[in-house]
From TrEMBL, chains A, B, C, D:
Designated gene of the protein: mmsB
Active site (catalytic residues): K171
A GO molecular function held by the record: NAD binding
Gene3D superfamilies per the UniProt record, alphabetical: N-(1-d-carboxylethyl)-l-norvaline Dehydrogenase, domain 2 (1.10.1040.10), NAD(P)-binding Rossmann-like Domain (3.40.50.720)
UniProt-listed InterPro entries: 3-OH-isobutyrate_DH-rel_CS, 6-PGluconate_DH-like_C_sf, 6PGD_dom2, 6PGDH_NADP-bd, HIBADH, HIBADH-like_NADP-bd, HIBADH-related, NAD(P)-bd_dom_sf
Keywords: Branched-chain amino acid catabolism, NAD, Oxidoreductase
Enzyme's top EC category: oxidoreductase
Domain 3-hydroxyisobutyrate dehydrogenase-like NAD-binding, residue spans: 165-292
Name under which the protein is recorded: 3-hydroxyisobutyrate dehydrogenase
Length: 296, 296, 296, 296
């Protein structure tokens, strides 16, 4: 299949590579020549603008961009995708942005005859490279079906979340809960250890009790509990604290727009902001436990 | 085995019944004649004070009381257990109290030659009746081994948490995390549904993603997501909000004593306090979602 | 002086009337015919668009609009003020918006030769009618001097806060602190009264101690403490809870953009959002004490 | 007048000295010989136990102790004050403790014929030395009148707060509000300065607007705003952060006992706990602004 791909960064690059490996013919654009070169080496065709990608005769265009402003610019800009793409081409935006903006762009696309899906991912750069991402997809069922084989080349778990924007809704809701849970685990582990318990014993109990969650089982923030978790290697790698901060910001912003309280969510955002102020934004988000244990 | 049992309330009653069913000879005390009568019917011997239980020739005494003040009074009071019990009798307190008090009472018992374990439970009245409780046990390993067959008649999961007091530590750490997670799930579900997602679809995504936790999987607070959860029957039954409030109070108090911050834990306590002020303290603790969705 | 005025709502209407009373010749625009009619009765000239106001031969144009999107549209829109106003005309925006947007619009104005000031107010509709508003003004000192006599016809306290945008900065910082203080007073009064103190006695002590603040002295949230405060008339009138919510949203949004934690500010926003969800957004912002005392 | 005084620490020492200077005959006890020596030099008589003070023929006994456990021990202990004091002697406890304990001790005193007042102070060690403390007094009006001349030798502002315990209630309510306000000012100043405002200009605006409070006017946390505030001398002197933490702990504990939510109060406590964990507990409580500005 001829597929356009815009945005070849830490996530987009390996995703596009997986599409190429799967045998698709890629037509790519990125501002970084280095990023483009890697794809060209894998057989992709380099184009010099989103508009050129739109006019390259592709069936599907996938974008992976840093924030809503870039998505709006690439899709809605004067010489952007919508101004150049033929009717019927399927548009898939995998950027993580607020649901409101996602719906706005999708509505504009739909108005001129292009089906559009929001399809943010979870799984990080590791999942992007391994092709094991989860895609949370919002849009019409028929378009989801059409996108499924393409997304399957990049991910393992492709979930239809409902109408347009709902992929982003699922992503921000999940990641807000993740941020809250991680801080909750950090507090529970700190409290228990400070009160005299062995960290591994405590984690074992939480994981077989009602406190268990992904953050206690898979990414426990206490060093030494899980050998392969970021906590056991100085909090390097993993999902960065500043990325969690960004997602919490999307969640509280989306909540504000619909007048929905998210009390712990807002506090979690502030705690990650404080943590970032202390200079730790680049560490895995489990490092938030440093707010609670000065020796970690 | 001859076993003393003090405190035959909603939890202690069914726990003692399971011991009786397992063939043990029980010597019981409770202020409520009604509670005692049920046990007598099951073959137990009724005694008129903790002191009488202490002198009844038992090998083990188990207590299940509402709060630290009752535990201190029953064990340390002028005519209490310690003033009357022969050396060597094993004492097991299954009340949920603060770790500091648990250690204080155990130290007093140890000083006069009685091994003591703190062994708070999780699993609620359902688990007490079914004999499927989890026991989190603090104390010496040899005493834990001695208690194991007795506790096994009342629970399915008997966990040694380390030294004296650590059973209580595990309990408060777990339940603080549980309270935080539940509010986090309530916020994530409310946000997602308010932004347009179907509740069941959203829960399904959380449960297969990094937001998953006991509160999203087993006791999801959104009505209709889980047929058998309290949320689907008006939040009746389950683990009451006021009990969660009590446990959050134990956690923040224990944290204060050791100067350990628990930021989300303290906020969770306040939110359950606010919820209780609105008159909802008797509902299952998943009902906290009512703070976020006025129509639930 | 010939003065243009755009936005004649609850605040803008009485502000413009005070300018008319002071002898200025007004050229006004508002979408509401009723609002315009009141000003015409007072001698103002009605125009049918911001563009018409821009071309009306005025020396100064003042705008008073609900939110940043309206300000951007009126100033930067295709047929907006900047596209039509002659060089040198002084532009004053008294809307309360985020500092970033204020600076963006002022920079665009400056680029084409129009000095611009951000000049949000405090004092509410009462201050607008009485001409006793406080103006917090951001922009060049010379422009501030030029604006001073005009603003003095509408307010009593005209403060220069520094460069462009700083009027908005002062406003959001002050109102965030105000929201936090009000909730703090609500909690302190609720705690003291629930613990057995007389409300007036407690307020008297706070007001002569280190807890004193505008919210305890001038707008005490406990009914009966201050005869003329909203709390003593069912929380009607005053500064609405939903307006406080809006300002807290501006504060946390501005903080997010510069990566500045505002922990209590974010929690105050969430509490006002919860209060609004309960249907109380129209009450004076001191009514937030209802979250703490179910009988108030 | 013959006056007993128990507890001659940083606060009690200078308070007792002021009584001596006013011509009263003091009979004192403290565990520290050094503290006692200073009073003896000023003419006081040294006694070797609270019991001895109780039997020394005094009309009034004043105590100034660190925490509730010391107050209970001194008053209710086996050989304590109540076991030894003649009927009718007026007892005044100036310690800052929880209202519940204060009422418990006063009730025991009253039962055996001794009127008792709780009379915690504000004003710090400076106010204690200068004799300018504020006394917040709980107890019967006649006892308050009797105590007034004695307290006036140590303080300037002697306030009757109502029945027994209400002095403590006023103190914890005021100090909880103070802690919240200080953090609020820290956030507002940090936000404004980070957004580009001059700190003094911003403080000036807050202090003439609705955000004004004791913490912005008298103890502004931003360095350089007030020449004589702790912020301008490295946060030395003043009211220590760990003392604020203690008072916030008393407030949230008192709130818990009566099931009263204090949401910002609890969060303020946690933030001061976090600040203390970072090793800053000895700095003036305005230093909490360091949580928000990494360069301060």
């Amino acid at each position: 299949m001829n597929i356009g791909f815009i945005g070849l960064g830490n996530m987009g690059g390996p995703m596009a590579l997986n599409l190429a490996k799967a045998g698709h013919r890629l037509h790519v654009f990125d501002l970084s020549q280095l990023a483009v070169a890697q794809l060209v080496e894998a057989g992709a065709r380099s184009l010099d603008s989103p508009a050129a990608v739109a006019r390259a005769g592709v069936e599907v265009i996938i974008s992976m961009l840093p924030a809503a402003q870039h998505v709006k610019s690439v899709y809605l800009g004067e010489d952007g995708l919508l101004a150049n793409v033929p009717k019927g081409v399927l548009l898939i935006d995998s950027s993580t942005i607020d649901p409101h903006s996602a719906r706005e762009v999708a509505a504009a696309a739909s108005k001129q005859g292009n089906p559009m899906l929001d399809a943010p991912v979870s799984g990080g750069t590791g999942g992007a490279a391994a092709g094991t991402l989860t895609f949370m997809v919002g849009g019409a069922a028929a378009d989801f079906d059409r996108a499924h084989p393409v997304l399957s080349a990049m991910g393992r778990n492709i979930v239809h979340c409902g109408d347009s924007g709902n992929g982003q809704v699922a992503k921000v809701a999940n990641n807000m809960l993740l941020g809250i849970s991680m801080i909750g685990v950090a507090e529970a582990m700190s409290l228990g250890v400070s009160l005299g318990m062995d960290a591994k014993t405590l984690a074992g109990i939480l994981n077989t009790s009602s406190g268990r969650c992904w953050s206690s089982e898979i990414n426990n923030p206490y060093p030494g509990v899980l050998e392969n978790a970021p906590a056991s290697r100085g909090y390097s790698g993993g999902f960065g604290s500043d990325l969690m901060l960004k997602d919490l910001g999307l969640a509280t912003e989306a909540a504000k727009q619909i007048r929905q309280p998210v009390i712990l969510g807002a506090l979690a955002q502030q705690l990650y902001q404080s943590f970032s102020l202390q200079g730790h934004g680049g560490l895995d988000f489990s490092a938030i436990i440093k707010l609670y244990q000065k020796d970690l």
